[in-house]
């Protein structure tokens, strides 16, 4: 039984009752002990003894100590049952007055759902076949002052789950499974790159010049230097400085910050993988990413199936590769090659698709906007889109045989952008010209245009080897491989609009 389906008034009453219990516990000099040490985990015990019957367990006489949160209890005279949950799972406590002792049994009856307890005793199996710890020791370790909710789901509770993630994690095993899977995915990324001789590095989060992506930054003021700094929008320019310095294969799992709106796919603080490899081009990185993602997909499906719902994507088939121009033609029946190749006709087609452009846009920008409006959401199967216009790719190397486009790709799966990469621009003079064009765009009012980074140009002047680099959104990748529809479902503490007051 629980006391968790109470209204606000009942909640205040229950909290008051629990505080009275805590006061008595303090008076007894036993409050908040820290000397109980568990030696077993509930989930591991369940797996280790799944085939052991009652007779086998009784004859073995294995004694264990477990600790965790009390999720349920049933008091039936001199015999009671309780459910304990730790980080690995749940196990039943068999609580008998004759085994535990009258005083300890009375103390057990006063426990509340949500209390953190430690229990020790022999493993057994009840008549109903439930693996249990026959408690000969049972102690209150932490008093829970707030009642747990009986149910913690449904659309009406979605925001509450995000705001009080700690309660969400207590109540929902599938939520804990998602974040265990996320941790395993990040570990898998590290293993993949370290096995290929990449060096993991760290670059500044506070930057004097925000670079590496077209995005609006967050601004802060550094008092000691009396200068504005920016939370990084991407680590790219610092990572390529390292390649200049001779660290020819580097990667970073980094936190980025972009001052943009909130949505099911966007959080202003997010995690990216970025990696750079000297003496490689964008085709090499597409092969590398396909291998990486297919391995991570298999890892999720086989080792973390409990985190994957029916919408989880499996990446078994080969990834398609299409140029942006060919993708626009493939997914727009009424658009012909003649329209795509003529700027005025392309502009008309884009405006007909709902694109609202600006006078400064050239052919490449119109093509990109038309692609985003009519194609992106239709790329369900894994698809690399290549040959992005130079106009929208200020850091990418131009194609030698078609300088109006770059050696750049983006990977789309289930209608979402998952990765972005390119052969790096290592021509310092070309880079300076593109930075200057970006600076002009910013001066004209484009908040997401890049700044001119003179130090990065100087680094290129020392010589950047032929290099390719890419970024993969970790949050979106976890969403994809576990089947979650909102980015908040894969962030432990997503950004939410502030609300007044404390917890209720």
Topology:
Blueprint: H1 8-27, H2 42-48, H3 54-60, E1 63-76, E2 79-86, E3 89-96, H4 97-100, H5 102-109, E4 116-125, E5 131-142, H6 158-163, H7 165-171, H8 173-194, E6 199-200, E7 206-207, E8 219-222, E9 227-231, H9 236-244, E10 249-257, E11 269-278, H10 282-303, E12 320-323, H11 324-330, H12 337-341, H13 343-352, H14 363-374, E13 383-386, E14 398-399, E15 402-406, E16 408-413, E17 416-423, H15 428-443, H16 454-462, E18 467-473, H17 474-482
Helix pairs in contact: 8-10, 9-16, 11-14, 13-14, 15-16
Give structural notes.
- The chain is built from 17 helices and 18 strands.
- By secondary structure, it is of the alpha+beta class.
- It has an eight-stranded mixed sheet with strand order 6-10-11-18-17-16-13-12, sandwiched between helices. Strands 1-2-3-5-4 form a five-stranded mixed barrel.
- Mean pLDDT is 93; it is low at 1-5.
- The radius of gyration is 29 Å and the shape is elongated.
- Helix 9 (236-244) runs parallel beside helix 16 and helix 13 runs parallel beside helix 14 (363-374).
């Amino acid at each position: 039984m629980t006391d968790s389906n109470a209204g606000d008034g009942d909640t205040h009453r229950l909290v008051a009752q629990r505080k009275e219990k805590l006061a008595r516990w303090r008076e007894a000099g036993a409050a908040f002990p820290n000397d109980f040490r568990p030696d077993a985990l509930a989930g591991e015990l369940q797996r280790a003894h799944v085939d052991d019957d009652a007779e086998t367990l009784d004859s073995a006489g294995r004694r264990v100590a477990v600790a965790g949160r009390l999720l349920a209890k049933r008091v039936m005279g001199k015999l009671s049952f309780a459910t304990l949950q730790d980080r690995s799972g749940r196990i039943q406590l068999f609580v008998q007055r004759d085994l535990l002792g009258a005083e300890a049994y009375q103390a057990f009856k006063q426990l509340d759902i949500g209390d953190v307890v430690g229990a020790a005793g022999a493993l057994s199996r009840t008549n109903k076949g439930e693996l249990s710890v026959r408690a000969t020791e049972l102690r209150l370790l932490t008093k829970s002052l707030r009642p747990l909710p009986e149910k913690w789901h449904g659309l009406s509770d979605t925001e509450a789950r995000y705001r009080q993630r700690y309660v969400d994690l207590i109540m929902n095993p599938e939520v804990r499974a998602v974040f265990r899977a996320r941790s395993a995915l990040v570990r898998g990324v590290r293993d993949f790159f370290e096995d290929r001789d990449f060096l993991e590095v760290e670059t500044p989060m506070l930057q004097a010049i925000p670079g590496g992506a077209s995005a609006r930054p967050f601004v802060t003021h550094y008092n000691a230097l009396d200068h504005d700094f920016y939370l990084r929008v991407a680590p790219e320019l610092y990572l390529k400085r390292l390649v200049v310095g001779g660290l020819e294969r580097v990667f970073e799992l980094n936190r980025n910050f972009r001052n943009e709106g909130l949505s099911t796919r966007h959080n202003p603080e997010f995690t990216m993988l970025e990696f750079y490899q000297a003496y490689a081009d964008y085709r090499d990185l597409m092969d590398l990413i396909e291998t990486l993602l297919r391995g991570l997909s298999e890892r999720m499906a086989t080792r973390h199936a409990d985190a994957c719902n029916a919408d989880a994507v499996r990446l078994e088939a080969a990834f398609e590769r299409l140029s942006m121009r060919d993708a626009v033609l493939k997914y727009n029946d009424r658009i012909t090659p003649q329209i795509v190749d003529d700027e005025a006709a392309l502009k008309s087609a884009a405006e007909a698709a709902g694109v609202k452009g600006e006078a400064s846009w050239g052919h490449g920008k119109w093509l990109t906007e038309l692609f985003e409006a009519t194609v992106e959401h239709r790329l369900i199967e894994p698809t690399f889109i290549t040959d992005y216009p130079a106009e929208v790719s200020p850091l990418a190397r131009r194609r030698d045989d078609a300088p109006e486009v770059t050696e750049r790709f983006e990977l789309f799966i289930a209608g979402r952008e998952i990765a972005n990469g390119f052969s790096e621009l290592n021509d310092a003079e070309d880079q300076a010209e593109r930075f200057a064009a970006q600076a002009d765009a910013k001066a004209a009012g484009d908040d997401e245009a890049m700044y001119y980074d003179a130090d990065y140009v100087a680094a290129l002047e020392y010589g950047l080897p032929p290099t390719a680099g890419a970024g993969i959104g970790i949050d979106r990748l976890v969403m994809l491989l576990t089947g979650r529809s909102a980015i908040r479902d894969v962030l432990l503490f997503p950004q939410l609009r502030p609300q007044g007051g404390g917890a209720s």
